[in-house]
Design a protein that fits this description.
The protein is α/β, with parallel strands linked by helices. The strands form two sheets. The chain has a six-stranded mixed sheet, with helices on both faces. A four-stranded antiparallel sheet has the order 2-1-4-5, with helices on one face. The structure holds adenosine-5'-diphosphate and magnesium ion.
């Protein structure tokens, strides 16, 4: 599980995450919603140690992420992350792109890496695009390739940071469907999203971020369906 305990994060004088605590249990899907600049992406970066923190603690399966002795490369192998956009290597095929990390990071043999990559690409519906180059994929297919690439490392956790925000509206659904499938399979996920209806459908809990803090958290029927705080309600109105 992921245990975030009173985390503080600042960039110079700018306090961005101001005492956030959140535990994400195995198999749980937690969505983070909130306005631009509220610290959502920064918190995700802290979870896999891409950003140092100034206070508090984050533990992943009991390993303290920001402890000096922690092997971040090893930790990151179990945390897949998908951003708004992933720039695949243009000179490599889709299959080769997905094989790369299992080969280089996990040291898998070519056949083994290929087997995993084919399986994950097929899983996200790209089984017919293996030999294609990334620039021949639609934006939605590229994001599904990014998901397959993360899954090829056999992560225990998946973090999604606005994975559909850069997509044309008609391409959003296929990526959300892929994320929904992972959730249904029991993947532990933390996702930052503006797709409120999706968050409502797929999440066990929803956290509304405001000004570096979790302003309201609870099951989607509460936070989205019947927000207790006026700021949450205002935010939901603003995105609908
Ligand atoms: P969100 O994802 O909720 O839109 P972010 O976590 O990206 O918000 O950013 C929160 C605040 O931190 C913003 O004011 C942003 O400008 C600032 N910020 C984010 N990353 C950096 C950085 N690397 N250096 C300085 N400030 C940053
Ligand atoms: Mg962000």
């Amino acid at each position: 599980m992921i245990e975030i305990d009173n985390v503080h994060k600042s960039f110079g004088a700018l306090d961005v995450v101001k005492g956030v605590s959140l535990t994400v249990n195995k198999g749980e899907v937690v969505s983070i919603i909130g306005g631009s600049g509220s610290g959502k992406s920064t918190l995700l970066m802290c979870i896999n140690g891409l950003e140092p923190i100034q206070g508090g603690q984050i533990r992943v399966d009991g390993t303290e992420v920001h402890a000096p002795r922690t092997d971040l490369n090893k930790l990151r192998q179990k945390i897949g992350i998908v951003f708004q956009q992933w720039n695949a290597f243009p000179h490599l095929t889709v299959l080769e792109n997905v094989m790369l990390a299992p080969r280089k990071v996990l040291g898998k043999r070519r056949e083994e890496a290929e087997e995993v990559a084919v399986r994950q690409l097929t899983h996200v519906g790209l089984g017919d695009k293996l030999k294609v180059f990334p620039n021949k994929l639609s934006g939605g297919q590229q994001q599904r390739m990014a998901i397959a690439r993360a899954l090829a490392m056999s992560p225990d956790y998946m973090l999604f940071d606005e994975a559909t925000s850069a997509l044309d509206p008609q391409l959003v659904g296929e990526v959300l469907d892929t994320m929904r499938m992972l959730a249904a399979e029991g993947m532990t996920m933390v996702l930052v999203t503006h797709e409120i209806r999706f968050a409502r459908d797929v999440s066990d809990r929803v956290a509304f971020f405001r000004n570096g803090r979790i302003h309201e958290i609870g099951p989607p029927e509460q936070v989205i369906g019947a927000p207790q705080l006026p700021e949450t309600a205002d935010f939901l109105k603003s995105v609908n």
